[in-house]
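Hey, weird one. I pasted the ATP synthase subunit a sequence into the form twice and got a warning about non-standard characters only the second time. First submission, copied straight from the form history:
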Amino acid sequence: MMVSFFDQFASPLYLGIPLIAIAITLPWVLYPTPSSRWINNRLITVQGWLINRFTNQLMLPLNMGGHKWALLLVSLMIFLITINMLGLLPYTFTPTTQLSLNMGFAVPLWLATVIIGMRNQPPVALGHLLPEGTPIPLIPVLIIIETISLFIRPLALGVRLTANLTAGHLLIQLIATAVFVLLPMMPTVAILTATVLFLLTLLEVAVAMIQAYVFVLLLSLYLQENV
């Protein structure tokens, strides 16, 4: 039976129950919990250092009002990185290849930044729809264009994350299939292809981390405009 390459992105079922909920909650079990000891182990120390560095970098352009989002944004980035990295393991399912899940993250958080801007500083929030110094005949057109670009932001967040991870998984599966097909016929070519597969896997590890960082970074930039 011919299996489609896109079958790996279908949510797995067990007794008719979708297992995506388990795939989403599993990463939280893997995180080391801080202890009450004065001296922590190396893993918790490195984890704390990385989180502090990322938090400082993320909150640097924001004022004090935006610092309330630090816990939410850092937790979201760690969660996305963990899901993306676990999805690179064999026989696993990557929930972030589902556009519905990514939109579920992007739309509420983007909408929260817009609501905060409209509540705290309505003139500034509405001023983003019309650049300063715009000629009068272009004002209606630019308002429409900026409004469309504003509503496209959450869609761009979700599609960017979904497309990058889906493309990487498909490419890995295609090259891995080529390795198994070429191995009995042309071992030398298969070894070279396997080398390319190894390098691509390293690239996908970087993409898994970078895409989670970009997702949260863009949210922080949207927040910066409204606080």
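That's the output from the first submission. The warning seems to come from a hidden character in my clipboard, not from the data itself. DSSP finds seven helices and two strands in the chain.
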